[in-house]
Amino acid sequence: MDLQRCSVFAILCQRGIPEQYTVHITCETLKGLCYLHSKQFIHRDIKCENLLIGWNGEVKLADFGLATKTTRRNRERLGTSKWMAPEVIREQYYDEKIDMWSLGITIIEMMDRVPPHYLIRDETELFKAILSEPSPTFTYSLPTMYMRGLVAWLLDEQPSTRPHAVDVLQEIEAHVQSKLLQCSTSQELARFVNHVLSSATS
């Protein structure tokens, strides 16, 4: 893999990510997931630490150490706890839809700077909260209603009605085209990252 500039998480160490850049990062992540899922793989660890930003604003998935084939009957509780889909926590059989749940959590993480249930340290308490409370939403940021709707779609507790990556990508692109969502370009993302990281070292 080419040397990337930083992870998305590195930006969060300095500030939350405005919606237009979050939309761009999400679209590029979805393109990666569309490819991965088409090859019958599940990533199983989507989060900001595993999304890399290049010097020209390109976005790439990283850390495939937990990836598995969809042709297997997967039910292992693997991944990072706060990003786990309910069916993973319950150790039920799951498929690539778990990556969609994790992406929904990651979108909240990008804008809020922290994932839902950030303050819960005990894993048993965390899992109880994920399984018993309504699907999480934004706490510290002010996304548009369309971004809120997108995240609610991704965080559908029922895997059968949770969308596929290709469906979400098409929906976002349609919203961007109709100007219901703003989406930065790669060049604009690169300038934003440069500004954030330069400010951190000055």
Automatic annotation (TrEMBL):
SUPFAM superfamilies: Protein kinase-like (PK-like). Residues 1-176 form the Protein kinase domain. Keywords: ATP-binding, Kinase, Nucleotide-binding, Serine/threonine-protein kinase, Transferase. The keyword Transferase applies. It comes from the Eukaryota. GO terms for cellular component: cytoplasm. Coiled coil: none annotated. It catalyses: L-threonyl-[protein] + ATP = O-phospho-L-threonyl-[protein] + ADP + H(+); L-seryl-[protein] + ATP = O-phospho-L-seryl-[protein] + ADP + H(+). GO terms for molecular function: ATP binding; protein serine/threonine kinase activity. Signal peptide: none annotated. InterPro entries: Kinase-like_dom_sf (IPR011009), Prot_kinase_dom (IPR000719), Ser/Thr_kinase_AS (IPR008271), STE20/SPS1-PAK (IPR050629). Pfam families: Pkinase. PANTHER family: FI20177P1, STERILE20-LIKE KINASE, ISOFORM B-RELATED. Belongs to the protein kinase superfamily. STE Ser/Thr protein kinase family. STE20 subfamily. This is Serine threonine kinase 10. The lineage of its organism: Eukaryota, Fungi, Fungi incertae sedis, Mucoromycota, Mucoromycotina. The gene is STK10.
